[in-house]
Amino acid sequence: MVLLLVLLMGGTLLWRSGAFDSLFGGTSASGPGPSTSTGAPAPSGSTGIPSRSPSASPSAADAGIATSSGPINRSFPGLTTFRGNAMRSFYGEGPVPQNPQILWKYPTTGGLCSTSDDLFGHRVWCGTGWTGQPNVIQHADGTIEIREGAYDDHYHFLNGMTGKEMRPDLVTGDLAKGSATSDADGYPLYYGGSRDNNLRVIALDRPKPTVLWEVNANTSTPHRVWNDDWDGAPLDIGDYLLEGGENSWFYVIRLNRHYDAKHLVQVNPKIVMLVPGYDAQLFRDVHDQDVSIENSVAYHDGVVYFSNSGGLVQGWDISDILNGGTHYKRVFRFWDGDDTDASIVIDQQGYLYVGRKMEENVHRPESFPRDHQIGDLMKLDPRKPNDPVVWSVQLGGFEPDGGLLGTPALYKGVVYDTYTEGGFAAVDAETGRLLWKVTLPGPTWMSPVPIDDQLVVGDCSGVLHDYDISNPSQKPTELWHLQLSGCEESTPAVWHGMIWVGTRGGQIYGIGDAP
Q: How far apart are CA 175 and CA 447, in angstroms?
């Protein structure tokens, strides 16, 4: 009996330690655990919103979570970052509404507007823009929370079924562009940037969203290039945050997530890798310094991939960094010729799908021959760095801003993408053969969303469309369309019969079938 008791106790300790996981191929744990020092579950905080205990953080290059085509958040349901996972290839979960209508819009009157300066002067900006995909968080009690940054300089936290505010806004000093990210391991943390120069780590277990730490695009690098915004959605791989800035630098930030004695989430971030997204050869090729990183970085098998507005596609091996080391190495470099703001998408075999457009901000005649040599949608093999182009196809035109801003969508062997002139297309992922094109009112910047053999895509006349793509070799049939207000630059989020999307008209919409 004593021996049996010892064996049972030993087995329990092994199970709690995670040893069985490593023995049978599970995810190994690192970083802070989900419990407080007393062993109690992580608290829900004072927001009135139930929270989950965070899952154990994966080690670097974790193949089970970080390189899966499913959601990066495996311990709770939802859509926590732009395109849902590290490979930027998860689109949400159906069903898609069959007879949709606007169930709510936020705000009910007026619009989400503010003024901001850019290259074209002092202007009023309204609604949500590129890429602008909401986070969808399904809480433990079933409540759906929508988290969305907008052009009123605020981040908003809304009830997905009613459009009512679930938390106070987080107020920034300028436009909240791009897409933000919720912690994939279940910590009550939110990561998002603003045109006010700052990338923030935000705690959501206080009475109001609280900034725990921020990094400034102008002061955190030895040499800022081009701009100071943060368009890309940060990517969290375990305890590390990966992000590229419009200052043209790429960051890896060790968060050091933990809970304090009051059971509140805390971080102690350290920048553990900082490299330029450009090099001397790129400057010689493009003859200008518009080389900002505006896409959401992607990650696969220990390598992070990103591109910039100069067309430089790079892959950096950061596996040692993510394991607590100090070594990193660039393992892939390819110049595609011009502005590459769409996020790189990675398939299960490690191929890269890259979208390019013609630069609008600067005159770039040096790139023109390269733009004609390689099509603006391309499939690259990073294992062949000297000759990586598997295929390329030209979808858009060659006028300023012509080409691809929407992030490619991979679905059942087909690549779907929008092109800025007005429309979307389907391309065979294996051969690069153009299957068909559909014309829409442009410019079309948003990224198409394929779910359940349907494709949700919006246009700049404010119409949201749903197409049947069950037979991708044939031009699709429209299943329905719905009129919204303002150009749809933002990417919709689809989750369990609902669609959430913001427009430049000034509102965020909750769309579903009639109750």
A: 20
Structural contact between residues 375 and 393, judged by C-beta atoms closer than 8 angstroms: yes
pTM: 0.89
pLDDT digits (tens, 9 = 90+) for 456-515: 999 999 999 999 999 999 999 999 999 999 999 999 999 999 999 999 999 999 999 988
Closest CA to 271 of 224, 312, 326: 326
pLDDT at 35 over 90: no
The helix/strand/coil state of 210 is: strand
In b/e form, how buried is each residue of 299-330, taking b as 16+ CB within 10 angstroms? bbebbbbbbbbbbbbbbbbbbbbbeeeeebee
Peptide bond just before 340 cis, omega within 30 deg: no
Q: What is the pLDDT of residue 136?
A: 98
C-alpha triplet 312, 313, 319: angle, nearest 5°: 130
Alpha helices in 86-201 (DSSP H): none
Q: pLDDT per residue over 118-169, tens digit each?
A: 878 899 999 999 999 999 999 999 999 999 999 999 999 999 999 999 999 9
> Residue 349 — left, alpha, or beta (φ > 0 → left; ψ -120 to 50 → alpha)?
alpha
Residues in contact with 323: Cβ distance below 8 Å, sequence separation at least 6, in sequence order: 59, 60, 61
Task: Kindly report whether the peptide bond that precedes residue 207 is cis, defined as omega within 30 degrees of 0.
Answer: no
- What is the spatial distance between Cα 59 and Cα 27, in angstroms, rounded to a whole number? 8
The candidate with the shortest Cα–Cα distance to 265, out of 235, 239, 234, is: 239
Task: Please compute the mean of the pLDDT values over residues 432-460 and round it to a whole number.
Answer: 98
Q: Environment class of residue 363 by beta-carbon count within 10 Å: exposed (0-12), middle (13-18) or buried (19+)?
A: exposed
Dihedrals phi, psi of 223, to nearest 5 degrees: -160, 100
Cα 444 from chain centre = 18
298 CB neighbour count, 10 Å cutoff: 26
Query: How many degrees, rounded to 5, is the angle at CA 202 between CA 197 and CA 203?
Result: 165
Distance, CA of 425 to chain centre? 22
CA distance 299 to 318: 10
Does position 25 have pLDDT exceeding 80, yes or no? no
Please state, in angstroms and rounded to a whole number, the distance separating the CA atoms of residues 328 and 347. 23
Q: Are 188 and 50 spatial neighbours (Cβ–Cβ below 8 Å)?
A: no
Q: Are 54 and 183 a contacting pair, CB within 8 Å? A: yes
pLDDT band at residue 55 under the 50/70/90 scheme: low
Phi–psi pair at 367, nearest 5 degrees: -85, -15
Show the tokens assigned to 57.
């953080």
350: tokens are 């490690």
Confidence at 206, pLDDT banded by 50, 70, 90: very high
29 vs 226 pLDDT, higher one: 226
Adjacent-strand bridge partners of 512: 101, 498
